[in-house]
Automatic annotation (TrEMBL):
Residues 149-223 form the HTH crp-type domain. It comes from Achromobacter marplatensis. CDD domains: CAP_ED (cd00038), HTH_CRP (cd00092). This is Crp/Fnr family transcriptional regulator. InterPro entries: cNMP-bd_dom (IPR000595), cNMP-bd_dom_sf (IPR018490), Env_Response_Regulators (IPR050397), HTH_CRP (IPR012318), RmlC-like_jellyroll (IPR014710), WH-like_DNA-bd_sf (IPR036388), WH_DNA-bd_sf (IPR036390). The keyword DNA-binding applies.
Length: 257
């Protein structure tokens, strides 16, 4: 049985918040907590799908190696997300590698418990199905972006997506919320490290993003970045965003919208 700390963390997650104490205790009956240091692998691509998981704290990266040997970052896992659902998809092995971006805590259930778990907790089963449907939809969207968008649009959409999923407001803008490298962004968008570095440097000069330190990205004007995607109307009452076109005036920090 997980520790009282895990129980408290679960209570803060939307996935488990509606459950009564008895239901929550029953759901945790077969669960085992596991702690991952930054860089540690939760499971590897091609390994037997022996468990399914819920992330309680931290952030995980899902990476896949193509038959050509190219690594692609598929998505990031945030607290409250279910992952490792090979058993739910009828797959014997995990289709990707999952590793910790920062120190993380998750709960693991044996794959053999999936049928009992879903039968006993239909709400959690519905969430798992919704999760898989959302990931399929997101995969289709990314395929469309790779086919139709130029590189700048793909990188802009990826950063906006990460901000939407994990963004943390700061005094300088919105931080993505976890360490991310330019190589990571390149692997998510099907481009090169050089191209991502050039785009981010240009956006920083224009005041669209700020310097959040090593492996951090702070978005100072989501509206300006959205316009680069070609689908956002121009704000009529935002002088800060207008200034992003040529870079903000000295001493002016663009507003976050």
């Amino acid at each position: 049985m997980p520790s009282p700390l895990c129980h408290a963390l679960l209570r803060n997650l939307d996935l488990f918040r509606p459950l009564a104490d008895a239901q929550l205790n029953a759901a945790l009956q077969d669960a085992a907590p596991c702690r991952l240091e930054a860089g540690a692998v939760a499971y590897a691509q091609g390994a037997p799908g022996a468990h399914f998981f819920v992330l309680l704290h931290g952030c995980l990266k899902v990476a896949q190696v193509t038959p050509e040997g190219e690594q692609i970052i598929v998505r990031y896992v945030n607290p409250g997300d279910m992952f490792g659902l090979a058993c739910a998809m009828g797959q014997a092995c995990y289709p990707a590698t999952v590793l910790a971006v920062q120190e993380s805590v998750c709960l693991a259930w044996p794959a053999a418990a999936w049928s009992t778990f879903t039968a006993s907790h239909p709400q959690l089963a519905a969430t798992a199905l919704h999760t898989m449907g959302h990931r399929l939809q997101e995969a289709h969207q990314r395929i469309q972006e790779l086919s139709n968008d130029d590189v700048e649009q793909r990188v802009a959409r990826t950063i906006l997506r990460l901000i939407d999923q994990s963004g943390l407001p700061t005094r300088d803008g919105v931080d993505i919320g976890f360490p991310i490298t330019r190589q990571d962004i390149a692997e998510m968008t099907g481009t090169t490290l050089h191209t991502v570095s050039r785009l981010l440097s240009d956006w920083k000069q224009r005041g669209i993003i700020g310097g959040g330190g090593r492996m951090r990205i702070v978005l100072r004007s989501p509206a300006a970045l959205a316009r680069l995607c070609g689908h956002a109307p121009l704000p009529v009452d935002c002088a800060a965003c207008l200034s992003c076109r040529a870079g903000p005036s000295a001493g002016v920090v663009p507003a976050v919208h």
